[in-house]
Amino acid sequence: MTTVIDIDARSTQHCETTALGVLLRHQGLDLSEPMLFGLGSGLSFIYWDGKNMDFPFLGGRVKPFDLTRNLAARLKLELLVQETTSPHRAWENVVAPIDAGHPVGLQLDSYHLDYFGSKVHFGGHVVAMYGYDDHDAYLVDTDQQGGAVSTSLASLARARAARGPMTARHRSFTLTAPRNPPSPEGQIISAVTACADAFLNPPIANLGHRGIEKAGKLVRTWLQRTGDPRRDLPQAALLMEKAGTGGALFRNLYRDFLAECARLLDSSHLRTGYGLYAEAAALWTEVAVLITEAGESGDARCLAQAGTVLCDLSRIEREAMQALSRLGSEAPKATREYL
């Protein structure tokens, strides 16, 4: 038996926005990937290290699934989330909506998926599932992972059952749009200011602009932090640029979101934020290059330079978010209808 839904699978870069795009287009709501990311207040920063970690991790977005919850709340979407410890019930939770003609979002560990060439555990990976047969599940993943892909049912079961950092208990979800959803344009101000406020006022020093400043100090020690710098430093840089971030640790996506917003709303604060994030995106890519060079050459001067750039980035992003946090105070004028 084969059940496959007709879906719109597009070239996209980030896993959660990829899945959200598939589910929402099926509901008749077609938004760009940067707009999905921005309306979900997806941008953040974390410097993550710990005794059980082989090497520090730089993250550039909010926690897995927070973006989905944020977006659903802003657009008044009905978000139905199901979790269970039972593999049998987990499968029933997925096939029921698919058999009814609705694609389903899944959170799982990408390590177990057949089509993933890079075997690294990541329990916060999100895909859209749109069909299945007796042997395989049909999924939509990022363009980097192949777009419309398939994986064996056994591998999917392992990926959904995995336990560890950022995993969920066989999480599946569907989205239903209301008959008269709020205009995405009307949600820009709340999405931008919420993201800015969280970034500017982090609860701990590892997050937001404070986290970037901390990274600028600690990245200088990374050659001493690892026994295999030729492996760990280029891998860290690769994750910043290629691991579903859209490049520049999600800053390219947020830059493009702000550019789209600036075409919709006449706001000097939006234009300031866009200009600063365009600058920041280029600098994040420069940091990744310097970290790679440090790992390959063993030259600590590359890390010292990366640290200097990160300290500049902390200031630039702080200034950008300060401008964006004032967006709600100026009542910006719409420049055109949102189509």
From TrEMBL:
Residues 155-324 form the DUF4872 domain. The lineage of its organism: Bacteria, Bacillati, Actinomycetota, Actinomycetes, Streptosporangiales. Pfam families: BtrH_N (PF14399), DUF4872 (PF16169). It comes from Streptosporangium carneum. Residues 14-142 form the Butirosin biosynthesis protein H N-terminal domain. InterPro entries: BtrH_N, DUF4872. It comes from the Bacteria. This is Lantibiotic ABC transporter.
